[in-house]
Design goal:
This protein is mainly alpha-helical. The chain is 57% helix and 4% strand. A hairpin with a 3-residue loop joins strand 3 and strand 4. The longest helix has 32 residues. One of its GO terms (cellular component) is endoplasmic reticulum membrane. This is Acetyl-coenzyme A transporter 1.
Length: 593
């Protein structure tokens, strides 16, 4: 059977038993009982969010594209994709991976019997969240050391790997060492490299961050370093997601999603909120010490060394003690070549409805880019302690748990994009409110910091922002689940989620890059000097003057983004909603034998 796929608008139908017409089905398809909804990816924190521990950008984790079976020690040619038509588990995995227990087998397992596996998954997801949290804290550290917004834009590429991991996920799924284990073949070396890299960087990171006294941060080296951290964490995520499906029995596989959410959130909290609090001298002196000290309790170097050691110890224990569960590996596992996977992705994206969706969602979030990417950095620039912004994550957690449950009641119907469309203007207006908040910040600052009512206003503003963000986010995820072809649910859903995340990544990077060019500065105290470039600013300072901002590019950008956002809402929003009226055949991808 050929492994090629051809997507067309209207698949042929055949008669059912009752004489009616029903869509055709893959020849190798098992009898389907209907797909379970894929687990949505969580929003990921973006550089410069008001609270880096909570995402203001939907750059969430992505599930990998289907599940492929191939190994380095090939003992015979691996057959092409025969079982793309299985039921879909949460996360987009084919249910064919987990066949029902046979009669006389051990049957349904109580979760307590697999408590060790559940705890291991939890630990692995916590470790995954550590480099993500550290990467989210670096922009605030850079901002406190007067890094330019051009530097921040360059560093924002660090947050792209999780949105792009679809590009190498088929390789992780397909190539492995049979004797060592399909998932351990990637998990163990990836975590070893992460651990060694963290320990090595603990000796270099202080030099890369600069001393704040003449030697600035090496943004290029920091970007390369943390991009590799994120790339390795994304690769580890692919391996752990896949292992979870065979590590746990079919009856308990739902706990994998819980381990993912709890573990990654906990890891991000440790690597971001806890680190920023313990790294801050003012926070530690005020709340944790009796005698003030010039530094925090930990430094980034200390933190990297500690977690690097934890990675090495944990990985060694996993490599030696944990075996991949042979009982749960099916006899006929879903198999598919790497080339077929990429060919399938290209076939999906060529469909007119999918292509229209991709183009629209890639431009839909331009209007939020200034508010989402720059506001937090501006607040730090205006004197708000970065650890205080990070601690905003704590009261937001209950809201983030409750919001999806409430919003899903409105997005569960046939037109989830209506919620997206209705929430969009409110989120755009909050962008202007954020700009006002930044303008207001220096006016309420006093010698002791900021009054309590200021933080209450910030918290309320962020809570309103979260409501609009989650309304749009849950609506998009519901729509993606609704239109994804269940025959190839994992690949299809991952592709749509990847495009949605890229629609948030690139505007944030551009927004950060445009702040400096849009800012107007004058040289005060020195005639015939200007501050148009870095060199000119240095000449102004040498001449006895100082650069004074007369027009902050953030405010210009905020207004432009809101105008563009409302333009999209008026002109393209109705077309976006109209995608809901497309028939199911517009989204179906038919396999040709």
């Amino acid at each position: 059977m050929s492994g090629s796929h051809a997507c067309r608008r209207r698949p042929r139908a055949r008669k059912g038993r009752g004489g009616g017409r029903r869509p055709g089905r893959c020849a190798a398809s098992p009898r389907r009982r209907g797909p379970l909804p894929p687990r949505a990816a969580r929003p990921r924190a973006a550089a410069g969010d008001m609270s880096p521990a909570i995402a203001a950008k939907e750059g969430g984790r992505q599930r990998r594209a289907g599940s492929q079976h191939h190994c380095l020690d090939l003992r015979g040619e691996v057959p092409p994709a025969l079982a793309l038509c299985g039921d879909v588990l949460p996360g987009g995995e084919a249910e064919a991976l987990l066949p029902p227990p046979e009669a006389g087998s051990r049957g349904a397992r109580d979760c307590r019997a697999e408590l060790g596996s559940i705890l291991l998954l939890l630990v692995l997801y916590v470790l995954q969240g550590i480099p993500l949290g550290l990467a989210g804290s670096v922009p605030l550290i850079l901002q406190s050391r007067s890094a330019s917004y051009t530097d921040q834009a360059f560093f924002s590429f660090v947050f792209w790997p999780f949105s792009l991991k679809l590009l190498w996920a088929p390789l992780v799924d397909a190539v492995y060492l049979r004797g060592f284990g399909r998932r351990k073949s990637w998990l163990v070396p990836t975590q070893y490299v992460l651990g060694v890299f963290m320990i090595y960087m603990s000796t270099q990171v202080d030099l890369l961050l600069g001393d704040g006294e003449g030697r600035g941060p090496d943004v290029v080296a920091l970007t390369v370093t943390f991009f590799l951290f994120e790339f390795l964490a994304a690769t580890q995520d692919i391996a752990v997601d896949g292992w979870a499906l065979t590590m746990l029995s079919r009856e308990n596989v739902g706990y994998a999603s819980t381990c993912n959410s709890v573990g990654q959130t906990a890891g991000y909290f440790l690597g971001n909120v806890l680190f920023l609090a313990l790294e801050s001298a003012s926070f530690c002196n005020k709340y944790l010490r009796f005698q003030p000290q010039p530094q925090g309790i930990v430094t980034l170097s200390d933190f990297l060394f500690f977690w690097g050691a934890v990675f090495l110890i944990t990985t060694t224990l996993v490599a030696l003690l944990k075996k991949e569960n042979k009982e749960l590996i099916p006899i006929k596992e879903e198999t598919k070549g790497i080339t077929d996977t990429y060919r399938l992705l290209f076939s999906i994206i060529k469909m007119p409805a999918v292509l229209t969706f991709c183009l629209l969602i890639l431009t839909a979030k331009v209007g939020f880019s200034a508010a989402d990417a720059v506001t937090g950095l501006k607040l730090v620039e205006e004197g708000v302690p970065k650890e205080h912004l990070a601690l905003l994550a704590v009261p937001m957690v209950p809201l983030q748990i409750i919001l999806p449950l409430i919003i899903s009641k409105y997005t569960a119907g046939p037109q989830p994009l209506n919620t997206f469309y209705k929430a969009m203007p409110f989120r755009l207006l909050l962008g202007l409110e954020f700009a006002f908040l930044v303008w207001w910040t220096p006016k309420v600052k006093h010698e002791g910091g900021f009054p309590v009512y200021y933080y209450i206003v910030v918290l309320l503003s962020y809570a309103l922002h979260q409501i609009t963000l989650y309304s749009m986010y849950v609506a998009i995820m519901a729509f993606n689940a609704k239109v994804s072809d269940p025959l190839i649910g994992g690949t299809y859903m991952t592709l749509l989620n990847t495009v949605s995340n890229l629609g948030g990544n690139w505007p944030s990077t551009v927004a950060l890059w445009l702040v400096d060019p849009l800012t107007v500065k004058e040289c005060a105290g020195a005639q015939e000097q200007n501050c148009g470039t870095t060199v000119a600013a240095e000449l102004c300072t040498k001449a006895g003057g100082s650069c004074v901002t007369t027009l902050d590019g953030y405010y210009v950008e905020s207004v432009i983004c809101v105008i563009l956002g409302f333009g999209w809402w008026f002109l393209l929003g109705p077309k976006f909603k109209k995608l809901q009226d497309e028939g199911q055949s517009s989204w179906k991808c038919k396999r040709t034998n």
